[in-house]
C-alpha cells in the first residue's frame, strides 16, 4: 500500500464573523474556538501577520464586528503518513464508488490537507472533482459514494436525506457495515436507539456522544461470529449520525476493539492522553470498522448494489 510523507503548501482558513462573536477580541475569538492551540500561540500568529481582518493586519485586541471576515494563513506543515492508494470500483458521468482504505481521511481537517481522498481526487479530476455523498471516518474502510455532477449530487443527497424518514423496506439507499467489538452480545440480533448529540471536548471544542438530549439514531445489529473475548457484528444504520456505529456499540456495552476514543457507555475519553501524550480525537485510528454493502438508486433510475470485501479480521467466511 502506498504511503506518503511530505510538507504541504499551507492553507488559508477563512470565516465570517456572526452575531454571537461580535465584540470579542481577535485573540479571544481564536482562543475560544480553536483550542488545539494555546492562547500564546494564537497571539504569536496574530502578531506575525498570519491573521488578517478583512484582508488588513490587526492586533490581538482588535474587536470584531458581525459580517467581517477573518483569515488565518497557516504555514506549510508535514502531514501524518496515510495510505493514499484507493480503488475505483465504478464510475460513470454521474457518480463514482470507491473502496477507501483505513487511515485515509475523506475531507481536510485535523492536520490533514493533501493527505485526503478529496485532495487525491482533485489531482485526478481537476475540472470536476467528485464529491462525497456520505461520510466515512478516517479509520473506517470500505465503500464510499461520490457524485460527479451537480445534478447527481443533488439527487443522491436528497435520496440519503429522505431515507432517514422511511422504514427499512422502503429505503432506496442502504448501508451495511461490519465491526469487531469487545465482548459478546447475548442476542444474535439487537437494535440500538441511543440519541446522539455534541459533547464538550477540551481540544476540539466538541465531539459527538450518546446523550438523552440528542437526535434520534438507530442501528440494527446482527452477530456473525463469536470469539472468546470479541465478536464480529454486522450493522445496518437507519440514520447517519457522526460516528454512529462507534458510539452505539460502545453505548450498548460493546465498544469497537482498538477504538481510542469511545468507551463503554458511548462516552468519549477526553481526559486520558494517548501514549504520545495527546488526547484522543475522532480521527484517530485503531478500531476495526468496514463499509461492506451499499445500495442506492442511480440518477438514471436503476438500482445499484456494491460489496467491498472486508479485512481479514472481519471476514467471517474464513474464520
Short note summarizing the structure:
The protein has helices at 26-33, 39-47, 117-124, 150-163, 244-251; strands at 3-4, 11-16, 51-53, 56-57, 69-74, 82-83, 87-91, 95-100, 131-132, 140-147, 174-182, 189-192, 196-201, 205-210, 219-226, 230-237, 262-263, 267-268, 289-297, 303-307.
Would you kindly provide a written description of the structure presented here, covering whatever features stand out?
This protein is of the alpha+beta class. It has 5 helices and 20 strands. Strands 7, 8, 9, 10, 11, 12, 15, 16, 19 and 20 form a 10-stranded mixed beta sheet that branches.
Low-confidence stretches: none
Cα shape? globular
- Report helical residue fraction: 10-25%
N- and C-termini, Cα separation? 24 Å
Radius of gyration: 21 Å
Number of helical elements: 5
Comma- or semicolon-separated keywords:
5 helices, 319 residues, 10-stranded mixed beta sheet, alpha+beta, 4-stranded antiparallel beta sheet, 15% helix, globular
